[in-house]
Every structure is written in C-alpha cells, then in structure tokens.
Amino acid sequence: MTTHRLTRRKLLTTAAGAAVLGFPLPLRAQPKTFKVGAIHPVTGPLAEPGQACRLGAQMAAEAINAAGGIKSKGGIKLELLVGDTQTKPENGRVEAERVVQQGAQMLLGSFDSGSTNAMVSVAQQRRVPFLVDIAAADPITANVAKAVREGQQKVQYVYRNFPTGSSFGRKAVQYFTEIFREAGVSPKRVVPITRPASAQLLLPEIRKQKVEILGVVSPGSPGLYEAGQIAALKEDLEYVMASVPWPNFKNPKTKTLAEEYQKRSGGKTFDTNSGYSYDAMFVIADILERAARLDDPDTIVDAMRKTNYTAGLMQYGGPILFNEIGDNPNAIPTMIQILGQKPVAVWPKEAALQKFVFPRPKA
Amino acid sequence: MGPWLWLAALAVLLALPAVLSGYVVTIFILIFFYGFLGQAWNIVGGYTGQLSVGHAAFVGIGGYTAAMLSIEAGLTPWIGMFIGGALAAVLGAIIAYLGFRFGLRGFYFVLLTVAFAEVCRILASNIDAIGGALGLYITFTGNPRQFQFQDQRAYYYVALALMMAATGVVAVIERRRFGIYLTAIREDEAACEALGVNTFKYKMLAMLVSSFLTGIGGTFYAYYLFSLQPSTVFGIPLSVEIIIRPIVGGAGTLLGPILGSFILTPLGELSRSYFGQGGMYGVHLIAYGVLLIAVVLFLPHGAYPYLTRLFGGRPRA
C-alpha cells in the first residue's frame, strides 16, 4: 500500500498550478461585454465636473445592464473602462489609446475641448466610434466632417450630443430677446459678466451701490448658478438668469434619477455634466441595439447616423439626432433663474417650471 | 558606453514599434517628445545653469506659427516647423538679451522667463485671429504632407528622430570649446569672465539654440494633439514638465534628460492607470509626487550621474 504524503513543496506546486489554471475559468464563464472607454478629467483643475461625468456614465451603464443589457444582441452588458485626462490634451490621447488597447469599442468623453480633440485623432486613426458627451468647441466635429467631405478621411467616427460653442451664443441671444419681449422691456445695455470670481466681486457691488438695473443675465458662463456659488453669494444671486444646458425636471424620470444621484455623489446636484454623460450612455445603448453588428465599427457608425432617440433626460429641442456635421442640433441650453435660492428652468416656455421674474423687483 | 552599445540601443528602439501595442507606442512617443524638449532646455538650463521656467513660450510660438502657416497659407508644417523654431529663437534672443545684458541671475532670470511666457499666454488668449482663449483646432487628415499620420508608429519615429537630433546637437556642443565655456559659466561665471571668455555671447548662443529646438517641438505638439490652447501651450505647467525630466535624470549631462523622461513618463502613466481606476480620485498624483520627492531626495544630482558611478564610470560634465 502506498501512502501519499503531502509535502509542503507538493502543496505549493499544486496550489500554484490551480491558481494558474483556475483563474481564467470564472472569467471564461462570464458573458462577453461591450467595452466603452469613458474618459473625463477626474483630477486636476476640472476634477469636479469630470467626476460628475464619470458618475453619470457609471450610473447609466448600471441602469442599462440592470434592465437586461443590449437586448437585440443577446443581452450583452456594457462595461466602462474609465480614464482620466487631468485636463491635459496629451492624456486624452494616451488614455484613449489605453482603453482601446484594453478592448474599448467605443469612446465617450471628455469635457474639455483640448483633450476631446486629441481623442478625435485616436478615434479616426483606430476607427473607434466616439460620442462626445461634453465639449463645446465647434471644430471638434466640424473639422472631421470637413476632412471626410474633402476625401482626406473615409468615415466620420466622431459625433456629439452637446450644444456647440456657437449655438450657445445664438440661443442665449434668442432667449434674451424673447424674454425681453415677453416682459415688455427693451434694455439699453446688456453687460455680460464671466467667471465665478468676477461674479463674487460684481454682484455685491451692484447691491451696495444701489445700481438700477433690470436684471443680471448670463450667456452661460459658469459662476452664477452652482451650489457653492449660491451659498457664497446668497441673496445677491437671486433673480440672476443664465442660459445653460439643463436637465428636464418636468420628466419624472429625471427627478427620480436626480435623487439617486444626490445619494451616490454625497449630496451633489444632478446637472449639466452628470446629465449629458448619463444621456450619452443611453444613446450608446440605443445605437448598439440598432447596429447590424457590434464587431464592425462602420456598422456602429451607420446606426449612429440614424439615431433618433427621444428618452433623453436633459432639456432638448427635439429628439437626439446627428446632422451632417455630426452634431445634435436639438442639444440646446435652457434659461434658468435663481428663484428662492435654487436654479429653476424658466425659458423656453415648454421647459419652464416657473415663470421668470424680469425685470427684477426693486429692493 | 561603447559605440556598439549605442548602436544596439538604437536598433532596439527602431525595432520596438513592430512588437509594441498602440498604447505603449504612445507612451514611448511622449518619452521621446519630453526627452527632446528636456534636451533642448538642458543646453541653457543644465549646461549653462541659467534656469528658464518659461520654455513653454517657445513650444507655443513654434506650434502656433506652423499651424497658422498651414491653415492660412497652406504651407506644409515640415517647413513651418523651422519658421516656428526661428520665431521662437527670436523670442529667446529677446529674453536672453534682456536677462544677460542687465545681469539678471538666479530668481530674477527665472521671473523674467516666466513673465515672458505669461505675456505670450495672455496675448494669444486675446488675439481672435489665432483662436483666442478657445484655441486653435487642427483638422485630423492623416496626410503625411500635413505632418499627420494615420499610423501611430510614424509619430514614434518622428519623435525618436527629434530626440536623437537634439541629443546629437548637445553631444557636439559638449565636445567643443563652446560646451566647456557653458559649463564654466555655470560653475563660476565671474572666474570665467576674468579668464577672458565672452560670457554674454555664449549665454546668448545657448539660449538661441535651446529656444530654436524647443520651437520645433511646438510643431510636433500641435500635430500630435491637434489643438493649441493658450493656457496649455504657454502655461507654467508645461514649462515645469519640460524642466523636471532633465532635473530628475541629471541636468547638464548628455543622457540626463532622456533618462529622466524614461523614468518620469512611465511613472506618471503607471500611477494613473493603477490608482486612477477606483473611486479614490487623485491617489495617483500623491503616488507620483512621493516618488518624485524620493528621487530628488536620494539622487540630488539626478539619476544619470548616480548610475554612472554605480557602474564604475565617470560622470561626464
């Protein structure tokens, strides 16, 4: 009779062998996922909005997966490969290359226009469809469309669901004009102010010096509606209006999500950044549902071009679709006003939750 | 290192793109590019000991020049890059003249260089013809005539060539009387002057060569990242990125900037891809910072002199 004695060496080799052989097994058993590279500036000067974008995209991916993944493709789940640009263009490029290397079949990002444009070159070079969730500079999509038109690139892989820089300005002027007409006033001067710091100097001064003005309106620059700014400026921000991309709180889904977002983010507001990244993930899911195949980037682009998505949670001027440049003409800002120390949508009429107060009451 | 070792290293670098993934190729491109910029800075900052913290200005001027010439006049950036380098050298000459003619040393020279870079940043932010604060966006075409490549590996070879060329320039300077004058100026400018060396002339020359090379780097920046924003290309963070590699690798040594780039760029990448995934935002910056402090603390003269001592060699210059 032979006895098998388990020596320490044998135990170690067996354990190592089991580790080597055993590890891939659970991975192999998992269903395949569709990987999306979500790249945002989660550290550095734009860390706060960047983190909001990442969380928005993550919550959307979780919601899509919980509802059964991409149903037309056998319920394949979405997997996010996250990246950090630190607001440096070179990192946009490096991170895009990294996630593509790790198997990302689509790109999402990336808030600041410089990093986004660096990602564009990767998308075009490596043929990876890229949905820009936030970034306003017009040339990001327009340049690619031009290169395709002139035959220098075959296919446009870059599309954007966010207002462009020029549409920001146009819409702001349109809203101002409409509100002035509705209020029956014709202001002699409109003085734009920018940057959080200048608002903190200017607004208290307007109050102290009892300047007679009809109101303070902004074409969308940050610094006039964020929670921190309201806490700092308090009454001085009351009745201030700004034209910004904004969630559609008339939609009950937006309200529910905003509450969940507040819990997950440690008390932050569901806003432009989290909202557009959230919508973008759902647009990607919608594209994948309609794409003929998922292993060919050009069929994904075909489906992208035919997008007509109506369930967005942000305030849109119509369904999400992409024009010949690759932009969504229905991605528009909303005029919000600080009323009762909270930003509230007041214009256009179909988006308004409350009637605007303009000219503002005399103190 | 013997010539054979050099050739072997070069052969490995030339062959690498065939086996490396696109991501690793990208990291190598950044290593070469920052190695190139560090080497250009090394001439004036390392060898001559004149601490310029405004080298980003030359990157910006070079990049904007080549991009504007290409967009407005259809001039290929392959030529535009030399015009950009020349304009950067003009700015370099102005800064150097003001600084050296009036004998600004130490912190005062640092402030002068920073001030010029800031003036460039503010000017570029306010000139609408070159894109203003939003910046200049370059169309990706993948056309080699426009300094663009559909294949990532072409950028690798261009960046490698830039780094090798700058290293060649520095190697030549180091072996000539010019290089010895520069080192002498760094070690004791008064003594150097007393021995009859025209220190003003050689400091000016060092700055000219350095700013010209850095300006050429601007074209690569523009056509690799496809946008130029005043706050990024003229900003202090880019100047620091340029300086930090030669300092870590060994300022005033031939291989210091390259070694520094081979240490720092992958370090930044690894710490970001390792720590940047979870919810702990910013841990990678702490890790990077701690490693940087460790290098400066334990290798105060840089990694290259330490390594040459370690292997029994004698650190050059």
Write a structural description:
Chain A is α/β, with parallel strands linked by helices and 363 residues long. Chain A is built from 12 helices and 9 strands. Chain A has helices at residues 8-22, 24-29, 47-66, 89-101, 113-126, 139-149, 165-183, 196-208, 227-233, 252-264, 272-290, 297-305; strands at residues 33-40, 77-84, 106-110, 130-134, 158-160, 217-218, 241-244, 334-339, 342-347. In chain A, helix 3 (47-66) runs parallel beside helix 11 (272-290) and helix 4 (89-101) runs parallel beside helix 5 (113-126). Chain A is elongated and about 65 Å long. The N and C termini of chain A lie far apart (103 Å). Chain B has one domain (11-234). Chain B contains 14 helices and 2 strands. Chain B has helices at 3-15, 22-47, 56-73, 77-101, 107-126, 152-175, 177-187, 189-194, 199-225, 230-233, 236-249, 256-275, 283-298, 303-310, and strands at residues 136-137, 227-228. In chain B, strands 1-2 form a two-stranded antiparallel ribbon. The A-B interface holds A 42-43, 47, 51, 82-84, 86, 88-94, 97-98, 100-101, 113-114, 117-118, 120-121, 124-126, 137, 139-140, 143-144, 146-147, 152-153, 165 and B 21-23, 25-27, 30, 134-135, 137-143, 150-152, 224-227, 229, 232, 237, 269, 272-273, 276-277, 281-282, 284-285.
List keywords for this structure.
heterodimer; A: 363 residues; alpha/beta; Rossmann fold; 2 domains; 5-stranded parallel beta sheet; 4-stranded mixed beta sheet; 9 strands; elongated; B: 317 residues; mainly alpha; two-stranded antiparallel ribbon
Largest interface: A-B, 38 and 35 residues
- The total tally of domains of chain A equals 2
The count of DSSP E runs of length 2 or more, i.e. the number of strands of chain A, is 9
> Average pLDDT across residues of chain B?
91
Average pLDDT level of chain A = 87
Percent in strands of chain A = 5-15%
Basic shape of chain A? elongated
Fourth-level CATH superfamily of the largest domain in chain A: Response regulator
* The top level CATH class name of the largest domain in chain A: Alpha Beta
Largest sheet of chain B: 2 strands, antiparallel
Distance between the termini of chain B: 15 Å
**Overall body shape of chain B:** globular
Structure summary, number of beta strands of chain B:
2
Structural class of chain A: alpha/beta
Order of helices and strands of chain A: HHEHEHEHEHEHHEHEHHHEE
Calculate the terminal CA-CA distance of chain A, rounded to whole Å. 103 Å
What is the gyration radius of chain A calculated from CA atoms? 24 Å
